[in-house]
Amino acid sequence: MIKASFIIIALLAGGNSANATVRNFFAPQSQGLRLDSCLTGDHDCGKPAADAFCKAQGFETALIFQREAAAETIKLGNGAFCTGPACTSFRQIKCYSAGDTVASN
Hints:
The protein has 105 residues and is of the alpha+beta class. It contains two helices and nine strands, in the order H-E-E-E-E-E-H-E-E-E-E. The protein has one domain. The strands form three sheets. The protein has a four-stranded mixed sheet, with no helix packed on it. A three-stranded antiparallel sheet has the order 1-9-6. Strands 4-5 form a two-stranded antiparallel sheet. It is elongated, with a radius of gyration of 14 Å. The model has no long low-confidence stretch (mean pLDDT 85).
């Protein structure tokens, strides 16, 4: 957790912190389903999938993310569904933008 805290501090210090935006998304969804932790199949899992979610929300990048098991998920990259005990969703994604690029939701 020290590494994640350092990254957050470094990003905020490096940019204009007055315009920086950070937002937590808890149990993020797409089309009413929990977001899968992989973009497509078993590829681009974790950070790439979290970054794609943040970009879709108008942010630049994902600072941190947490995963957990879910009964049903949807993959952001190709819209494929996962059902059953092997599915992994995001518990939380923290998105970041350095400036005024975040679209109002």
